Amino acid sequence: xxxxxxxxxxxxxxxxxxxxxxxxxxxxxxxxxxxxxxxxxxxxxxxxxxxxxxxxxxxxxxxxxxxxxxxxxxxxxxxxxxxxxxxxxxxxxxxxxxxxxxxxxxxxxxxxxxxxxxxxxxxxxxxxxxxxxxxxxxxxxxxxxxxxxxxxxxxxxxxxxxxxxxxxxxxxxxxxxxxxxxxxxxxxxxxxxxxxxxxxxxxxxxxxxxxxxxxxxxxxxxxxxxxxxxxxxxxxxxxxxxxxxxxxxxxxxxxxxxxxxxxxxxxxxxxxxxxxxxxxxxxxxxxxxxxxxxxxxxxxxxxxxxxxxxxxxxxxxxxxxxxxxxxxxxxxxxxxxxxxxxxxxxxxxxxxxxxxxxxxxxxxxxxxxxxxxxxxxxxxxxxxxxxxxxxxxxxxxxxxxxxxxxxxxxxxxxxxxxxxxxxxxxxxxxxxxxxxxxxxxxxxxxxxxxx
Length: 451
Prior knowledge:
Layout: H1 3-26, H2 28-31, H3 35-41, E1 45-50, H4 58-67, E2 70-73, H5 79-82, H6 92-103, E3 107-115, H7 121-124, H8 128-145, E4 152-157, H9 172-177, H10 181-192, E5 197-202, H11 210-225, E6 231-234, E7 237-238, H12 248-256, E8 261-269, H13 273-289, E9 293-298, H14 324-332, E10 355-365, E11 368-377, E12 385-390, E13 396-401, E14 404-408, E15 411-415, E16 427-435, E17 444-445, E18 449-450
Parallel strand pairs: 1-2, 1-9, 2-3, 3-4, 4-5, 5-6, 6-8, 7-8, 8-9
Antiparallel strand pairs: 10-11, 11-16, 12-15, 12-17, 12-18, 13-16, 14-15
């Protein structure tokens, strides 16, 4: 999709996505049975890293769509993936992730603009002047393509060495452009997309140590001089040899006190059972205790695709089953995955579950429109709903959010993604973008069924 078409699509869907987000927030108290909805109830996002190659796997996509409110492309926005040859950009895989996220009403984190790793070979061969130009061109090209669509960008990634020195890491950028390359990257990024949050991201900075002190001093300097930096990302990769530090919360807070947001950007914790669950709880509770900790991202959906798969570090096992760590995170966020015993008074299943569905057209243009279907529970709470939408034969749906569709000809059957549980009388909505293809007729919404 061209940049122009992407922006037209974004403009057409922005209103509905915003409305869907408001609906999610309004019902977070009764619908906090997933990670994303529970985090929303705490004013945070809960995201995951996504690989475009897995989006064709039904269980992967179903888990992603149900549980998470933010996505980070795992590799698809890195330099080697987006500009393999100088000046020639390719966005196919990254677009697939962004389009999917937008269809579900999810935010997107951009990862990453300037990093020493996963660089195409041509970058390292440039002299200083050409490298500076190439760095700025890359930032402008990548951010320009997604302008207005990315919540936060990891502008510079992992620019400091491990160990006790707090020195900068050797890289083409550091070695040829010097310490100023980070500031240049942030200033270029601010001009490229003024609305996006600009983050510095690194690992082994989770506690107070020489490396985190070096990053802290850089951020403090940037803030004092007006260098545009909005957030600091903490990767938070933990295991028995590198546990959650005792001063984790204190460290997040001291960065927040500089006037930047903090985000947990690549969380995974090797282990299993109650010990793993306890460590995840520590991380979530630390974020919730820091007002400027705006969200958390686990680095993958399922153990089987994790970069540390042998350490089983994620919230879902290889069969997409929830692990004790999942339950611990959901509980720490204030959610509950148990809708209750149907035999208890007031629980879903008591009496006759019912719902109604109403359709409105929320945006209209020459070639297409946005539709919204609002589902309202009857006199009893419901735990899920199903609605059919029959489109005129000529029309086609290009994207849908806050619901999971299946198709039979021109009949679309929609079930919830995250928003199935509704209190009596409560409402939620899903939306879609349709191409008219010569027909301006309204779709027909069938009977809403609930249980």
